[in-house]
Q: What sequence folds into this?
């Protein structure tokens, strides 16, 4: 005799206890009614699909909020309804993966709700899925939803592509991410916090060494001669290493303070706050990000990204 499938209540309780596979089954089971809600409010088109994907990712973070496990279907549909209405009300573009930034610890928020997510292994699951995306899609997703570089215009400038390409890549990234999450729900996942913590230590050692004018040997090995500074601070037609730019910044008396780290295997984002000495010409913007592309941990290229105020 075939076994009876688990009820919504059973799956919800298992998901709340940290079983990622149970949540994946819930999302798959209720995908059709969730899409129906989005279509009723947004009509046929990419907005409806985006709303369903955004709602599914929001459910990952908030599954612990469910008070009536047997009614989880109504809870999921309500999230889709709210997400769709937010899209209808939106006056300007905002990140579509509502609350997804909560999955990564912010350095200035020690009591962040991410602690709850860590207990449920959700963050490792999501970051494992993000790592499965092609680099171009992963980059726009990391910038849009995990960093301070969030507007389409800023992302387009950072990636050197048109705004329309950013939109297209984000839509592809969301769709692929949702599929990967469902197919990897029952797998073991790497510790995403370790990669972020290692990157944070590397950033602190790099900043401290740059201020002293002497980088530690283990940091120097990550910046080989072929590393290239690209973007607004580079010299057109010439290959520039990042170290001269670091030296000029130090000589001007500008200090950088690490604010936030976003790290994947081969893409790293360090968000900085800058403090300028009084009266210096051409002061550094108060906030910017180091966008690094890596190969075997070594930095292949560095681009400085300056978000809008």
A:
């Amino acid at each position: 005799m075939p076994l009876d499938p688990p009820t919504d209540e059973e799956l919800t309780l298992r998901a709340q206890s940290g079983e990622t596979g149970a949540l994946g089954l819930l999302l798959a089971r209720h995908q059709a009614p969730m899409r129906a809600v989005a279509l009723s409010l947004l009509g046929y088109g990419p907005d409806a699909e985006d709303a369903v994907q955004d709602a599914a990712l929001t459910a990952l973070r908030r599954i612990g909020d469910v008070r009536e496990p047997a009614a989880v279907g109504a809870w999921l549909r309500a999230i889709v309804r709210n997400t769709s209405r937010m899209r209808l009300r939106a006056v300007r573009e905002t990140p579509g993966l509502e609350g997804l930034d909560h999955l990564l610890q912010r350095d200035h928020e020690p009591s962040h709700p991410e602690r709850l997510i860590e207990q449920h292994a959700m963050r490792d699951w999501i970051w494992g899925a993000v790592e499965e995306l092609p680099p171009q899609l992963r980059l726009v997703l990391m910038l849009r939803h995990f960093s301070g570089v969030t507007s389409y215009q800023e992302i387009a400038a950072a990636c050197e592509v048109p705004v329309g390409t950013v939109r297209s890549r984000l839509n592809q990234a969301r769709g692929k991410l949702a599929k990967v999450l469902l197919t990897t729900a029952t797998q073991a996942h790497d510790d995403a916090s370790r990669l972020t913590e290692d990157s944070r230590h590397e950033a602190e050692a790099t900043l401290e060494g740059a201020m002293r004018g002497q980088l530690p040997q283990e940091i120097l090995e990550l910046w080989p001669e072929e590393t290239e500074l690209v973007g607004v601070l580079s010299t057109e037609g010439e290959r520039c290493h990042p170290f001269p730019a670091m030296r000029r910044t130090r000589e001007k008396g500008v200090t950088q303070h690490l604010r936030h780290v976003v790290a994947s295997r081969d893409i790293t984002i360090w968000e900085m706050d800058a403090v300028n000495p009084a009266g210096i010409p051409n002061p550094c913007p108060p906030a910017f990000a180091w966008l690094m592309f890596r190969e075997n941990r070594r930095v292949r290229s560095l681009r400085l990204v300056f978000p809008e105020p």
The domain at 121-190 is CATH 1.10.10.10 (Arc Repressor Mutant, subunit A).
